UniProtKB/TrEMBL annotation:
GO terms for molecular function: ATP binding; ATP hydrolysis activity. Residues 2-239 form the ABC transporter domain. It comes from Alteribacillus persepolensis. It comes from the Bacteria. PROSITE patterns: ABC_TRANSPORTER_1, ABC_TRANSPORTER_2. This is Iron complex transport system ATP-binding protein. Keywords: ATP-binding, Nucleotide-binding, Translocase, Transport.
Length: 494
């Protein structure tokens, strides 16, 4: 379809792009990324014949690009350049009609029915049909961009070259445009080469990504391979984080502010936490946000929080929409929902236990409340038809005064669960239905909170340094709260 073979090109003595090579198949989308001035537009210019390579060649359908007439190449390749000068006195429709020019035998055959149909379709698909009679100079930047795209589409090319096509477009039209291109790549086998500054758009919509650095081909592969954190940080000279997109299998690149702009934290961060206890709740407050991962009622999943609430509810608490009800409660006590992670429990808050432990290089703080009347042996819970939601649950908060990898968050959840279960076993807590040792209760919840800066702890499993500290701190906290709970219920020391 189109082959770029060892292309070197520039505007003077010094080449701007050097030795670029790749092949593209019909229906493929290639995202071209790279910093300002890295040669993306220059490469594109070579691909549509606006700039002759100093070395190497471009082959289109087995024929050198230079061997095509301008009209014949326009039947195969349409271009949406970065800056386009259009005679703005033209109407939108007239501009789009220009896209049919390469296919016409003579100017007067222009009004052919088929051409009109193709122009209408292009106007429709780019959402500009409603103002097709407006003059170009009455349009906004984004509207003009869509008209120029319609003109490129009316050309019915096999290959579409786009230089920052999402420039000027609002997010809805950006997605719309890229969705349309993806659809045409599938249904019309359109080959798309698009220079994109938005790395996440490039990752989501490209089959492959070409990364340029100083005119050189730094990487060419699937987005997940090219968009490696260290590589992007080096090429863009920026601090980035790479995550996985929450809903599609694509990398998600986020910008990290410089450390000067991050929230300042005190030397000993755990000392900066303060606790407010009322009959209705325990609230732990921090002067800065912690990165949390939790199964809390409010603020579950990953989030950023500085207020942590454990609220006591009656054992008969029943609500169809506990999240909404809880949100109203938090508002009533004056907390900002976006800043708050909140759990609830029918266990007595007075029975709660706080444990602080220092490891070699990390401080840990754990808070636990426990009630065990709905204790469950998880290995037998499949035998239940419905779960019992009476009083009692085990809520755990684990604060680690360090930065954690996502893997470490998950491993700390496991470590904490194992430590909790061990405490239940040592206190001989039984599942009341199966009469076997309980592994937890039916409504347990856990929150892990860590810092956003500093050296990262990669692992949090049971034999890692931080895992060992957390294992012991969680075991001690759950044991203490169980001790208070059982003592109060039996009236005896445990
Ligand atoms: N017509 C020209 N004459 C001389 N130099 C040029 C010309 N066009 C571009 N350059 C230079 O070539 C280099 C690469 O420019 P190019 O536009 O290809 O980069 P780019 O990666 O598309 O940048 P951007 O992301 O800023 O659009 C730059 O240093 C630029 O100044």
């Amino acid at each position: 379809m189109i082959q770029v073979k060892n292309v070197t090109a520039g505007y003077g003595m010094k080449p701007v792009v050097e030795n670029i090579s790749f092949d593209m198949e019909a229906g493929e989308i290639l995202g071209v990324i790279g910093p300002n001035g890295s040669g993306k537009s220059t490469l594109l210019k070579c691909m549509y014949g606006a700039l002759k390579p100093d070395d190497g060649e471009i082959i289109v359908d087995n024929k050198r690009l230079g061997a095509y007439t301008q009209k014949n190449i326009a039947k195969k390749i349409a271009v949406l350049p970065q800056q386009t000068d259009v005679a703005f006195s033209y109407t939108v429709r007239q501009v789009v009609e220009l896209g049919r020019y390469p296919h016409q035998k003579g100017w007067f055959s222009f009004q052919q029915k088929q051409d009109e149909h193709i122009v209408d379709k292009a106007l429709q698909e780019t959402g500009v049909l409603s103002f097709s009679n407006h003059p170009m100079d009455s349009l906004s930047g984004g509207e003009k961009q869509r008209v120029l795209l319609a003109r490129a589409l009316a050309q019915e090319p096999d290959i579409l070259l786009l230089d920052e096509p999402t420039n000027h477009l609002d997010i809805s039209y950006q997605l719309n445009l890229l969705d349309t291109l993806k659809d045409w790549s599938k249904t019309k086998q359109l080959t798309v080469i698009a220079v994109l500054h938005d790395l996440n758009m490039a990752a989501m919509y490209s089959h492959r990504v070409l990364l340029l650095e100083d005119g050189r081909q730094k990487a060419l592969d699937k987005p997940s391979v090219v968009m490696e954190k260290n590589r992007l940080e080096h090429v863009y000279q920026a601090h980035l984080e790479r995550k996985e997109h929450p809903s599609v299998p694509s990398p998600l690149i986020t910008l990290e502010p410089s450390s000067d702009t991050l929230e300042r934290k005190r030397e000993n961060v755990l000392d900066s936490l303060s606790i407010e206890k009322t009959p209705g709740h325990v609230c732990l407050m921090s002067p800065f946000h912690w990165k949390t991962f939790s199964s809390a009622v409010v603020g579950a999943g990953f989030g950023w929080h500085r207020y942590f609430v454990n609220r006591h509810v009656d054992k008969d608490y029943a609500c169809d929409q506990p999240k909404q009800e809880y949100t109203a409660y938090l508002k009533k006590i004056g907390l900002d929902i976006d800043d708050t992670a909140a759990m609830m429990t029918a266990a007595r808050l007075d029975d709660g236990a706080f444990v602080r432990m220092a490891g070699d290089n990390h401080d840990v703080f754990v808070y636990a409340t426990a009630g065990t009347s709905n204790a469950v042996d998880v290995s037998k819970s499949y035998e239940y038809y419905s779960m019992n939601h009476t009083a009692g649950t085990i809520n755990l908060w684990i604060f680690v005064a360090h930065r954690l990898s996502e893997a470490a968050y998950a491993q700390i959840m496991m470590t904490a669960t194992e430590a909790k279960t061990k405490a239940l076993m040592d206190y001989r807590i039984y599942d009341p239905k199966t009469k076997t040792l309980a592994t937890g209760t039916s409504t347990d919840s856990v929150l892990v909170a860590a810092l956003s800066e500093g050296e990262e702890i990669e692992y949090g499993g049971t034999i890692t340094p931080v895992g060992k500290t957390i294992g012991k701190a969680v075991y001690d906290a759950v044991s203490r709260t169980l001790n208070h709970y059982l003592k109060r219920r039996s009236g005896n020391e445990i």
